Amino acid sequence: MTVGLQFPDGFVWGAATAAYQIEGAARDEGRGPSIWDTFSRTPGKVYAGHTGDVACDHYHRYPDDVRLMADLGLRAYRFSISWPRVQPDGSGPVNPRGLDFYDRLVDELIGRGIDPIVTLYHWDLPQTLEDRGGWTSRDTASWFAEYAAAAYARLGDRVSTWTTLNEPWCSAYLGYASGIHAPGRQDPAAAFASVHHLLLGHGLAARALRAAGAETVGITLNPAAVLPADPESAADAEAVRVVDGLSNRIFLEPILASGYPSDVLEHMRRFTDLAFIQDGDEKAIAAAIDLLGVNYYSPTYVAGRPGAPGGGPAHPGTEGILFLPPAGPLTEMGWQIEPAGLTALLERLGRDYPTTPLYITENGAAFDDKPGADGQVADANRIAYLDGHLRAVHTAIERGVDVRGYLVWSLMDNFEWAEGYRKRFGIIHVDYQTQRRTPKDSALWYRDVIARNGLPS
Ligand code: GBH
């Protein structure tokens, strides 16, 4: 038997998306190509050759989509701005027609009482910048800050919450080390240079936003909930330290404390001379921020095992560490369902960074859901996933962690990166043939959660 739970007054309930995953309109109004246009056209990179050319056609259907958000009672909507719409070549002249779209979207949201939360970079780097080295190049950090200022100049009078990057872990390690994401490079040294330039870009952009008058500035990470296979084992605790350093402290400490931890610097030095770290960089990266966005899907269990292969190319230098295969109930992505991992992660962040308010900027699950004969989508598995994770958030709040909001991933089914359209994370179903939207049972359930600011018993 479960009990009803109340969330704090003013808790922010919402949903999240990202530009390349939903907008389509890949060539409209002067948008330049991004690394995901290139990558999705490269044979073998994305399931069945899917691309974001049309996606959910949100670019043309945004008024209907905002109406659906309002029907669910969303208080906030997290979306990303496409850098190559704003600057088709990544730097230099701004394309006002690209910003017009976000201008209209923001007005539509505000008109329906939904607070816009902007992500400036959700992985769609202008291809021109990749051609000049992408995130391995220091210039990209400065160009990112220029782009941030241009977006703020147009929307800052109405948007109060600005986040710089979404999950730089993915941009760096999946983009430049494992290559399963754009731009598809496989070079650990390039990945570490990218980590640094992403962090520097974040710091420079955060400072530019603040100087321009932004009220609330932050960043979204996907901190790994790294847990030991055996809590009693010293070898497993050591494995946790290494993976936590490589996945979490490498981002958290420069952003929220004062620079890279020495063990992380040592780890990186096995692949690079670190010449990309210049005087003053760590100070720039530590620009003050007002919130940390946390994306959580699944925990990572590790064990210290001599001879173990490590976590693969996305985890450079983790030989001797066993990454346990996901166990127990899994989502359609093959990811382990474990809400307790979220509580543990939030408690850790609350303990180590007690003055930074946290928002869950993504949490959700892919399941193989289809409309039934009645046209409805009965996704009890997703309701159970969301219910369990909201209880996990509530537990962390009860234990004193400052969690201010929860944004479900995702508002609607969309382009799931290397998985194409075959994985569905939405609480709204999208029929890609007709672009018909159908709120799933989970959407109707979420509407009730929002209305009562809590969970039913
Ligand atoms: C988020 O990425 C993205 O922000 C969002 O755009 C995306 O649609 C959503 O999640 C769903 O995927 O990779 O096998 O080592 C989440 C990416 C998923 C990266 C879990 C780390 C760990 C398992 N993260 N992953 S694995």
Automatic annotation (TrEMBL):
It comes from Phytohabitans flavus. Substrate binds at Q21, H122, N166, Y297, W409, E416, W417. Its EC number is 3.2.1.21. PROSITE patterns: GLYCOSYL_HYDROL_F1_1, GLYCOSYL_HYDROL_F1_2. Keywords: Carbohydrate metabolism, Cellulose degradation, Glycosidase, Hydrolase, Polysaccharide degradation. GO terms for cellular component: cytosol. This is Beta-glucosidase. GO terms for molecular function: beta-glucosidase activity. It catalyses: Hydrolysis of terminal, non-reducing beta-D-glucosyl residues with release of beta-D-glucose. One of its GO terms (biological process) is cellulose catabolic process. The active site is at E167, E362. InterPro entries: GH, GH_1_N_CS, Glyco_hydro_1, Glyco_hydro_1_AS, Glyco_hydro_1_beta-glucosidase. SUPFAM superfamilies: (Trans)glycosidases. Belongs to the glycosyl hydrolase 1 family.
